[in-house]
TrEMBL record:
Keywords: Signal. SUPFAM superfamilies: NTF2-like. This is SnoaL-like domain-containing protein. The lineage of its organism: Bacteria, Pseudomonadati, Bacteroidota, Flavobacteriia, Flavobacteriales. Residues 51-175 form the SnoaL-like domain. InterPro entries: NTF2-like_dom_sf, SnoaL-like. Residues 1-23 form the signal peptide. Pfam families: SnoaL_2.
């Protein structure tokens, strides 16, 4: 009796293990089916490298290099509230020229600064939530970081936390840019004489 009870317990344990493994596999298959194909990391990395090069060209004040990375039909949503109107490439480049004319030592610091003064990821794309709009493609690149510079006239050091959404056209050029940051952080503080 002990032997048959022991055999039954072993059989139950094996059935449970197989059932759990099958359930786990089924859950993964279900998730992949719901999410669609796996992520295209090469596409994401290519877009991230373009954004990094674009930001470096800004730091180098190389507006021609920046312009070459932009689609002719660029749409730009500036950080200031303008009734949520998108503007074109010409207006975007004028804003960039304004930064180049008014700031020196422009630098981009990639990533989000954490409470322990560490830094975590600066580029993200895709999502799993909400389920209705879950996406594995790198259609919109979310960029997090900090820009720093020296105000040319006052010599004051400036900095601004930065968030950006970018999309690309089929030629690999930046098609849309939407910036979010506090413009007042770029205004020199009055100094007492």
């Amino acid at each position: 009796m002990k032997k048959s009870l022991f055999q039954i317990l072993i059989m139950l344990a094996m059935l449970t293990a197989v059932s759990c493994k099958q359930a786990s596999t089924n859950e993964n298959t279900l998730l992949e089916t719901e999410m669609g194909p796996t992520a295209d990391h090469a596409d994401f990395n290519k877009k991230v490298e373009t954004i990094r090069a674009f930001f470096q060209a800004h730091a180098d004040e190389d507006i021609e290099a920046q312009e070459a990375m932009l689609a002719d039909t660029l749409k730009f949503s500036p950080p200031n509230y303008n009734g949520n109107k998108w503007v074109g490439k010409e207006e975007f480049l004028a804003a960039i020229k304004g930064y180049h004319d008014n700031f020196e030592n422009i630098r981009y610091h990639e990533g989000v600064v954490t409470a322990d003064n560490g830094t975590v990821g600066g580029f993200y794309s895709g999502s799993v939530y909400p389920k209705e709009t879950a996406e594995t493609k790198a259609n919109v690149i979310r960029t997090y970081g900090t820009w720093t510079a020296t105000h040319a006239e006052s010599g004051q050091e400036m900095g601004v936390k930065f968030f950006n959404l970018s999309t690309f056209n089929e030629d690999g050029k930046i098609a849309t840019l939407s910036d979010y940051f506090d413009l007042s952080s770029l205004v020199p503080k009055e100094t007492e004489n």
